Amino acid sequence: MVRAKKKEDQNEIGFEQALEKLEIIVKQLEKGELPLDQSLEHFAEGVNLSKLCLHKLNYAEQQIDKILLEEKGKVIEKPLHLQEDSSC
Domains in the chain: how many in total? Predict the structure, then answer.
């Protein structure tokens, strides 16, 4: 139940906030000072934040493409073929 609430909360935050939280989590995990259970919780939250950031970036890219097409007098909906960066 706690995880579902965290996921809902993450969907409500903006890109910048999600990225900031993700950076904090990465720094904490890199230190290696957290207990295993806490590390796993942080890792799971980081993965969710990473997915959220990717989703928000993809949406922004779609909006930019749409605006640029409207500027040219053409409104064409086209699917974006984006893939997740495996280094994240």
Answer: 1
